[in-house]
Amino acid sequence: MKYIKFLCLLTLLCLLPPLTTVAAPAKPNQQQKPVQIEADHMLSTPKDNSVFFSGRVVARQGMMIINADELTVYYNSTGKKGKVNAGETKDIKQMWAKGHVKINQDNWVATGDTAKYFAAQRKIVITGHTKVWQNGNMVSGERFILFLDSGKSIVEPGTGKDERVKAFFYPGQADKKQTH
């Protein structure tokens, strides 16, 4: 039992440091900040190079906070698949958040049903009743795509006949605090 706890802790310590920010292109030191994940349950599956968190999940790195019902982290291993060796590092390949997803960073808030982070493309895709607030302004659609390096974002409508992207801009609201 102690070995399993040690293995889970070691997996987390090796896995999480390279997590990137969500809201804007990452500052060089942002990616180096420690990551803290809290949840009601955790399941590490070294064979699949994944760690699954469930129940009131809160992930933090620097000024970024992700809340969700579930979070699965998929990682690339520098060692043999399924092995966790001392000094081995894990690079995040993908992260999938599901259920009541909310992402906060500075003056930026996004909500949706799911969120996926793709490390190779440095891209985040939030889907399902997506809303994004920044400086008092709001954009909504079915799918929100953010390219972290360029800061470019795309909002897409749902597939229904009358579904459209909606944007609300409020001049002079940049200094007001967000409460979403």
How would you describe the overall organization of this protein?
This protein has 180 residues and is mainly beta. The chain has a single domain, classed as Lipopolysaccharide (LPS) transport protein A like domain (lipopolysaccharide transport protein A fold, Sandwich), CATH 2.60.450.10. It has one helix at 2-15, and strands at residues 35-38, 41-45, 50-61, 64-77, 90-105, 108-118, 123-134, 137-147, 153-156, 166-168. Strands 1, 2, 3, 4, 5, 6, 7, 8, 9 and 10 form a ten-stranded antiparallel sheet that branches. GO terms for molecular function: glycolipid transfer activity; lipopolysaccharide binding. It comes from hydrothermal vent metagenome. It holds the Pfam family LptD_N.
Low-confidence stretches: 1-29
The overall average pLDDT, rounded, is 78
Helix/strand/pairing class, anyone?
mainly beta
Helix content: under 10%
Could you tell me how far the N terminus lies from the C terminus, measured between alpha carbons in angstroms?
A: 41 Å
Summarize the structure.
InterPro entries: LPS_export_LptA, LptA, OstA-like_N. This protein is mostly beta strands and 180 residues long. It has one helix at residues 2-15; strands at 35-38, 41-45, 50-61, 64-77, 90-105, 108-118, 123-134, 137-147, 153-156, 166-168.
